[in-house]
Target: Protein GrpE
Amino acid sequence: MTTPNGMPTNPGDPENTDPEATSADRAEQAADEAAARQGQDSPNGQSAEDVISPELEAELNDLLADIDPDADGDGAVSAVEEQLAERTEDLQRVTAEYANYRRRTDRERQGIIDTARAGVVTQLLPLLDDLDLAEQHGDLQDGPLKSISDKLSNILGGLKVESFGVVGEEFDPEIHEAVQDLSQGDVKVLGTVLRKGYRLGDRIIRTAMVLIGDPETDSEN
Model:
């Protein structure tokens, strides 16, 4: 029965409830739309950040394999047992997704830290170049300047900053910037190092500026 304005007299009656208009269905529809939007990030319907790693997926599958729907062992799976198994599986998946999120967050945090460190070291490069020149001229034998150089080297070592570019080292165009090639043969090495290069872990902060030369040969040959 309906009122003159077209509204049912008992809107709570299941017969008068529109399945497509219930809050649960609206929530489900909203979730589907959100999933569809996320699916645009990658062909398989998942964004790159939400994809679970193969190792984590294998671990999750092992955990799900241990779920026994027949909890009481009576040989029959009741509706309650089936729902319990489904909720347990959902919990395992949420746990795996959270672990994946934490690992991704840790990687991003470490990336931010490394970028900040690289920025600080970049600001110190002119000072390091001056200290290298002072060492070449013999000005770091004793005195306050040598003490400053030693302390700075210890600080950079603690930050895992390493210098590279040594005469005789094999030339690598990925990390060496060649100003001139003076080599005659096929084997190319660093003949002169005009400016050292620096790396922070696997990240190249600055390439080494070099002159390419030939390897030294044994005078006896």
User: Anything to note?
Assistant: Residues 160-221 form a domain with the Nucleotide Exchange Factor Grpe; Chain A, domain 2 fold (CATH 2.30.22.10). Confidence is low (pLDDT under 50) at residues 17-24, 38-49. The longest strand covers residues 189-195. Strands lie at 161-164, 176-181, 189-195, 197-200, 203-206, 208-213.
